[in-house]
Amino acid sequence: MNSTESAKFLTTLITNYTFNDNKIETYVPFILETITQHQLLSSKSESSREQQVALHKWCTRINSLLQSKVTNARWAGICFIKISLKQSGELFIQNLQSWATSLMVLLTKSEPTFILKEIITTLTELFNKTQNRPELQREITTQQLPRFNTFLIKLSGLNKELLPTILNALSHSVKNFPTIFRPVNEQTQKLCLNILLDGTYYYESELAKMAIECFTRIINFGGKLNMDYWKLTLLKLVGSLNNILDRLFDTIDEEKDMPKKLTGFEMPQVSEDYVVAFPILFSRFKCLSECLISLISLPTSLPVQIPVNQILDLLYRVYNIYDVSFVTNSKDKNEYYTLMLGIPSLLMNCNKILSAAILSIGEHLTRHLRVISSVLLKLLNNSKSRWLLRVSTYNLITLCMQKYGIGLTNSISSSTLLSFIIDDIEIIQKSQYDISNNTPVSTNNKKSSKKKESSQITNSDALVNSSGIIYLQANNDVQCSALEVLKILLQTCGASISSNKRLSLDNILLSRILSQNISSTYNSSKILLNEENVNMKLYECLLFSIISPSEYQPTILPHALRIFSAGQNSQSTQLQSFCSYALSICDLIYHSRLPPLERSSASTPITQQLEHTTVENISQHSYIENNDNSNMLVLEQSQKTFDIVPEEANTLIIEQNTVNKLEINIDKAITAEENNVLRGDNKSKPNIMEDGSKNNISIDDKVNMQKVELPQSTSLEMKKKRIRSPSPIGEKEELSKEDKEKDHDRVFKSLRMVDTNDDSDDDMEIPEIIMEGPDSEFEDNE
Prior knowledge:
- The chain contains 31 helices and seven strands.
- By secondary structure, it is mainly alpha-helical.
- The strands form three sheets. A three-stranded antiparallel β-sheet has the order 3-4-7, with no helix packed on it.
- Strand 3 and strand 4 (about 630-645) form a beta hairpin.
- It is globular, with a radius of gyration of 47 Å.
- This is Pre-rRNA-processing protein RIX1.
- It is found in: Nucleus.
């Protein structure tokens, strides 16, 4: 869309839908959607005059709506400012001063709550956009933001409904502008603590989450941030949690050697009646524990020290409380039972704190793994009937195994852990009727016999009916978390699991997956077994069981292949894709592959093999002759020796120690060079003149290499054929025309000689081809 069409659309919206203040709230959704779809306010690279006029009308109309007497019209103007900030940077820079001033004026007036929320969020976005712009920050943010923060603190005590919005704005302010936020730092911190320690707010409510986020950002990014201040605040949180536990565990006989108490934050007093006090204390513990988790999880601008020992002492204090804890004789047992009602929630919060500590501290907790593993097994043992706590414990075990790997598996008892997992993933089938009690009744008392006969099984339909069988299994979330632990356990140390446990696990996995093909009479159980998440985890565990097989039992790979092949026809697309992935892994296990090797075909011609031969030795021979006892001419010509090495050694050749007959046709071109040597004094250098126009003579010699028999002890390397073709051309004097013609005829009568020297280094016959010229030493000797 060009700028002209955009200007027309924007002008149409302004004219048709924004001039009626009483009805404009009904058109706001349509206006916002249209502007978003067509990007009518976005900055174009080349904006036309019509576009500038339309944008000017838009800004003028927004200012008019902000000053309107109609409440909904003011709300519409604020909404138009927000969408203008998102789409146009030019409108933001041009109207920042006027919009910020108008919104601050509206904030000081008694506006409805929904308008105040829009004003606070819009001003927060305005100030945040000036963070990386020093000029705007110096001219506007430095002047307006302190007033904005101060008024938010005052407004928090007047309107409780605005607390989440106010805390969100303050948290952004302290993060982006910590220096400007410093005057209201302590007031905001007290506001957050009052909300967290009140005890009437649920820890997962929006207000509690905003208070935790704001408090954490004040500690991490506030103006007073340093290492000691951060650690002191964290120790105060730990001390406050211990103070809450002191009141909760009043009826329990704890250990006498308790760690030194830490000072905490000041908290409002609670009632002495445990019925009223315990819900408030449980809520405080949850909120402060979430604040502790957020404090050690979020990043800080400076390196800090985490008090690990104090945090672990707090966690161990809660983990030591279980159902058979000793009760103080002087206390009311009803208070103890009331405490036991909230113990699972305390344990779950401790699991969250430990998870955050593992992610933050990391390897520094390695020395505590043995104690942590014993705590985890204890939690599994005490949470058989508490599925939420059991899921939390399994998730914590998964995190520990992912973080520490084999280190945790060495500390934790894998057999005990596997026993808990088997109990959770195994499905027990139990008949609803006890056939053993179906005994015949005596006929002495007819009245009683009739009553008993009515309660007995009289036919076999009840044994076959689906309602006659009960399937006992754990919660689906518990099964998913247990299977996740099993998957990581198989991946980490699957081969080291005992054969009995491994056999039980494989049988359970196969039986549960294969039980999906149960007959239609068991539809009720089929619904339980076909839970998608549990089913997916079963397939994943089966794959990891194949990847890490046991050394002492047969593999289940054939069964897994059939299961994964059938899983490709499943209704779940996620299961189909996973089965395809699993089949590719099974194929690699069945058909192991080596890296591809580059080999030459057997039908490659010998001429192509000669092109790929390697040069073994390059030797240079110098031929020196004296001319007239004064000048010396030295001609050097390189002599190359080629080794033909077969790329694959044939076993038949090695056994018979023979070499097949090779027929090689070599065409040689002998070039006769004439050199003119000019004589001079002893100081002059020889000049070599070459004239190859008349002396280039080609000769075709056919060399047939007969089969050479080698001894059996000869190695493969000694069977190489070496073909030497040296053609040294010595110094020749300038010949006359008649001598050249004679030499031309003599060249065709060159001899072919084979050197059969028995004293060679190779201990075998090496055919040598010597191409001699007309002036060779051989003919001279002849």
